[in-house]
Amino acid sequence: MQDISKILLTFVEFFLHYVWIANLFFIIVIIMIEKKNPLYTIFWIFLLTVIPYFGFFIYLFFGLTFKKKRVANKIYKLKKLRSRKNVSESDREELRRWKGLITYLEMSTDNYITSNNDIQLYFTGKEFFSNLKKEIANAKKFINMEYFIFQFDGIGKEIADLLIKKVNEGVEVNLIIDGVNL
What we know:
This is Cardiolipin synthetase. Keywords: Cell membrane, Membrane, Transferase, Transmembrane, Transmembrane helix. GO terms for molecular function: transferase activity. This protein has 3 domains: about 1-65, no CATH class; about 70-110; about 125-180, no CATH class. Helices cover about 70% and strands about 5% of the residues. The chain has helices at about 1-30, 40-50, 50-65, 65-85, 90-95, 100-110, 125-140, 155-170, and strands at about 140-145, 170-175. The longest helix is centred in the N-terminal third of the chain and has 31 residues, at about 1-30. The protein is elongated and about 90 Å long.
């Protein structure tokens, strides 16, 4: 009887050892191969680390979604093709060296590259609000604004008055703000 329990114990230790190795393998696969949202990847690594003997079974049932992955890859490729049409040939040459970063950002944020974009960096609030007021005053068809905080202090009142004036002139104004600060 003692021999059977010893054999059984040896088998269980052997099995758990290989499960632990499989667990490490799955962690490496998730880190290196999976091209998913980084939070999703961190979740599975955490689960496999915290529950090493059951985590990989959970991953097999819930983490590997072959059909979903196939559909998601098709959608990604279609979006990628559409976004690539918006990039000029000269821009494509310039962007080739950033291919890895672009692919990572597209996969993890679901945002795709476009061209003919222009940004203006502001280093002071005074500079920003001065330019914002000019842009509002020059608007002819529509104004779309989205802000986390919009306070009706001095500058907020000025902007609100300008927006009301533009609405009265027939300009379409869309303003999205967080309602917490109202």
